[in-house]
Each structure stands twice: as C-alpha cells, then as structure tokens.
C-alpha cells in the first residue's frame, strides 16, 4: 500500500543500471519491442486458437455516463453535426433521390479510452525511446509516434494473468501493488506458462469497477490506481523474456505512486522509454477473464492495431482476442 517517501529519486538515479534496448534495432527504430512480434510470433498466436471464441477488449467510447480517464483529461465527447432533425426542419441539403444522413464528430484525448501509447509518450532527461531528443515531441510527436506501431500492427500470442482473482478479490484496492513474484505465482496458480515474446495482459478489476461501482469514488482525489510496481528484477524479466506489450485494465498500467521510492509511474520510464515495451491501457478484461476461468485457457491469439493518427502520442484501439 502507499507509504510516504520524502525525497523521491530522479529517474536518472533510480534507473542508472536499468537495461535499455536503444540501438538494438538500429538508430532509426521507432517501434521498440514490437520488433519481437514477427511472422513466427503471429503463427504462435494462431496456434493458441482452440475454440474460435472471440473477445473485444475496448471500452465504450463517449458513454453518456462518462468514460474513465486520468485526472486532467476529459472523457470523449461526441456531437451530431447533421441528422434527421436538419432534414425535418428543411435545413438539410437536398440530395438527388431524396437520401438523408447523419454525421457526427468526437473530441477526444488519444489516451482517453482503450489505447496504445506511442513510445514517445513519456520520457525523462530530455530523451525519449531510442535516444531521440525530447524536443521531437514539441507541437507533434515527430519520432516514435503511434504511426509506425499502427503500420506494423500487433499480432501474437497473448496471455492473461488475473491478479484480482489471485488475491481473492473482484477488484484490487486503490494503491494496491503487485510485483514480479506475484505475477509469476498468479500465472503458476492458473496453470499458465508465460513464454518469451508473449503479449502480457494483467487484470486488476479496476476499469470494470468504474462501470459497476461508484464513479465518484473511482475518480476520487488523490487519484490512486492499483498496479504493477517497479523493481530491477521485474525490468530484467521483461528484458530477458522479450515481452513486447504490457496491457492492463487500469489507466496507466502501473501503480500511480510507487510506494517504495515515491516516484510517479516509473514503469513508463523503465519499460516504455528504456526497453521500448508497448503499453496498452484501459482494457476491458472482465469478460475474457470470466471465460478463461471457465475453460482454463489463459493463452490466445491477440490482434490489434491502433488508429493511424499522424504524429499521435497514442491512439485508440479495440483489440480482438481469439481463443
Ligand atoms: C499517463 O500518461 C498518466 O498515463 P497513460 O500512459 O495512460 O497515458
């Protein structure tokens, strides 16, 4: 649980000996650990399909009741710009043949729904993934944007670890943490072998609780999510296992403030910035988890591609899992 650390270290200090994949795929690389998801990885995903059951992992967008978002971001807003009312009041265009139609627009934070972060989304010490200058983010993400990830696509074998179930809970508590040992023990209890280059999904129950619980409590101040916590061993494990993607049903994929060192979101630095691990957040995992508990199958084919938003810091996605 959250404790107070008086002077949190700078990431340069905390992560001084942390592994990096900068340069591993060349000086121009912008997709990091996604390089691990090659043709073999796609075939491995295909081999994990047994029944053909499919699940989509995106949350609803622009829900009239509001979407779960990080403090300071706003839920997506959707507006009709033309619909039947325009034609009924004589304000719609006259279309040969008498057709009428509806159009709408959205105003959206690209991290305000189920999404992939670009590798240039978070950084420290003036450098983003692969050593590009943080100045490349000014005005538009010029390097390591979401575009090359969207062009590549994300296909491989996915696995789900149900951390909430491992703790015997429907949902982890605000600020509740788990680390590498918990992850491995939970997988073992599920009978799941996490393999090299698996797309790793972890369920906490947190996003599901937004829809089933008290929205004001979910967005309480200070906003503290449960989640994975930094340790050198965890980062080493991600590096050695060549994990290409971390996806969770939380907004930031990790505990909000690391109780051990007081820093905010250190895995965005150690995994995303340094190793080039793709982060996919705000996943809807409850239905998939329910099914995995029923049939005991915790691995599957995972397929997704974020939208091709030019220079985007991230982009919405609706991943599809096939079991
Ligand atoms: C933050 O940037 C806080 O989180 P995310 O990775 O969800 O965008």
TrEMBL record:
<dbReference type="Pfam" id="PF04199">
    <property type="entry name" value="Cyclase"/>
</dbReference>
<dbReference type="InterPro" id="IPR037175">
    <property type="entry name" value="KFase_sf"/>
</dbReference>
<dbReference type="GO" id="GO:0019441">
    <property type="term" value="P:L-tryptophan catabolic process to kynurenine"/>
</dbReference>
<dbReference type="GO" id="GO:0004061">
    <property type="term" value="F:arylformamidase activity"/>
</dbReference>
<protein>
    <submittedName>
        <fullName>Cyclase family protein</fullName>
    </submittedName>
</protein>
<dbReference type="InterPro" id="IPR007325">
    <property type="entry name" value="KFase/CYL"/>
</dbReference>
């Amino acid at each position: 649980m959250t404790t107070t650390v008086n002077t949190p270290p700078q990431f340069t200090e905390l992560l001084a000996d942390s592994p990096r994949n900068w340069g591993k795929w060349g000086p121009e690389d912008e997709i990091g650990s996604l390089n691990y998801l090659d043709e073999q990885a796609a075939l491995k995903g295909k081999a994990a399909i047994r029944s053909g059951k499919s699940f989509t992992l995106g949350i609803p967008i622009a829900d009239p009741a509001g979407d779960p978002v990080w403090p300071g971001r706003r839920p997506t807003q959707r507006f009709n710009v033309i619909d039947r009312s325009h034609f009924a009041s004589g304000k719609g265009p006259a279309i040969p043949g008498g057709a009428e139609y509806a159009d709408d627009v959205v105003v959206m934070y690209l991290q305000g729904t189920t999404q992939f972060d670009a590798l240039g989304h978070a950084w420290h010490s003036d450098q983003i993934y692969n050593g590009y200058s943080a100045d490349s983010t000014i005005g538009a993400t010029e390097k390591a944007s979401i575009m090359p990830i969207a062009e590549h696509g994300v296909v491989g074998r996915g696995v789900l670890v149900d951390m909430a179930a491992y703790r015997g809970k429907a949902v982890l508590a605000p600020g509740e943490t788990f680390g590498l040992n918990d992850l491995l023990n939970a997988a073992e209890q599920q009978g799941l072998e996490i393999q090299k280059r698996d797309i790793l999904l972890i369920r906490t129950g947190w996003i599901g609780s937004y829809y089933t619980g008290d929205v004001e409590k979910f967005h309480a101040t200070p906003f503290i999510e449960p989640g994975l916590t930094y340790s050198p061993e965890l980062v080493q494990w991600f590096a050695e296992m060549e994990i290409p993607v971390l996806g969770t049903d939380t907004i930031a994929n990790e505990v909000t403030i690391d109780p051990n060192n007081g820093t905010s979101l250190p895995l965005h630095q150690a995994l995303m910035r340094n190793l080039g691990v793709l982060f996919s957040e705000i996943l809807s995992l409850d239905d998939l988890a329910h099914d995995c508990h029923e049939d005991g199958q915790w691995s599957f084919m995972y397929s997704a591609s974020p939208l091709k938003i030019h220079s985007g810091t991230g982009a919405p996605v609706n991943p599809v899992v096939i079991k």
